[in-house]
Write a structure and sequence with these properties.
Blueprint: H1 4-9, E1 17-22, H2 25-41, E2 45-49, H3 52-64, H4 69-74, E3 78-81, H5 95-111, E4 117-122, H6 123-127, H7 133-149, E5 152-159, H8 165-173, E6 177-180, E7 183-186, H9 202-243
Parallel strand pairs: 1-5, 1-6, 2-3, 2-4, 4-5
Antiparallel strand pairs: 6-7
């Protein structure tokens, strides 16, 4: 039987947008290593955006898992980068610049005959830990639209200690899939971006929460009906045995 986390990550495909909230390097690598290995096995170009230390850790962990990193780097199947340079004096993080970088990388992946582009984005490295909330919301909207139209998937990596809780909550709402406790879960709190901004208002949150409550109730009702059927079958079986 395969590793449950790897089997779960294999459910991700092109156009998917997932996030992982980690509490340290070991937790982060436990997801990134199988995520990248799956991409390599599918012939995808794996672009890892992180700082220098993080890149060294990921490459070492991949090498330790049996990946021939030298060959993967040489043929362009793995690329570790810190992304485009965005200087504070020029306004700091620019969502459009980063997504344009991803778009150019997708063109390179196609030109190199890869099966697609697999992104791993360390959010603290890509955006900075002090990124304004509005910029983060804008970035997630642009990225989501980009993924919908390109043969690309993305795992956004969030350190739980890197951002305040309100930023992490925004990130949770921005991703259709979440890696949590070793499994990929479809995110019932995801709110698709609309227009140029992804600012969530109270009415959207209310509609989402009410829909979630209804879905939970439907699940409880289905389970209750199954339990009732099993009880009836048990009673019938017990009656037949008693009268045999």
């Amino acid at each position: 039987m395969g590793d449950p986390l790897t089997e779960s990550l294999e459910e991700l495909g092109l156009h998917d947008h997932a996030c992982h909230f980690h509490r340290g390097p070991e937790d982060r690598l436990s997801v990134l290593v199988p995520y990248i290995r799956i991409g390599l096995s599918r012939g995808e170009k794996c672009l890892i955006l992180c700082d220098e230390t993080g890149g060294e850790q990921i490459l070492a962990a991949l090498r330790g898992s049996g990946v021939d990193i030298g060959s993967a780097l040489a043929r362009g199947s793995v690329l570790v980068t810190q992304g485009p340079v965005m200087r504070p004096e020029e306004g700091g993080f620019d969502p459009g610049v980063l997504v344009a970088f991803f778009r150019a990388s997708a063109r390179v992946a196609r030109a190199e005959k890869h099966g697609g582009l697999r992104l791993s984005v360390d959010m603290a490295s890509a955006l900075g830990k002090d990124v304004p909330r509005e910029r983060l919301v804008e970035y997630q909207g642009l990225l989501h639209a980009f993924l919908a139209e390109q043969d690309t998937l993305c795992m956004c990596i969030h350190g739980m200690d890197d951002f305040p809780a309100d930023i992490l909550l925004d990130a949770l709402r921005a991703h259709p899939a979440v890696v949590h406790e070793g499994k990929i879960s479809r995110n019932c709190y995801f709110i698709p971006p609309t227009g140029e901004s992804r600012r969530v208002d109270a009415s959207q949150l209310l509609d989402q929460r009410l829909a979630h409550i209804l879905e939970q109730q439907r699940g409880v009702t289905r389970l209750r009906r199954k339990a009732n059927r099993l009880t009836r079958f048990r009673d019938i079986a017990a009656s037949l045995i008693a009268n045999a």
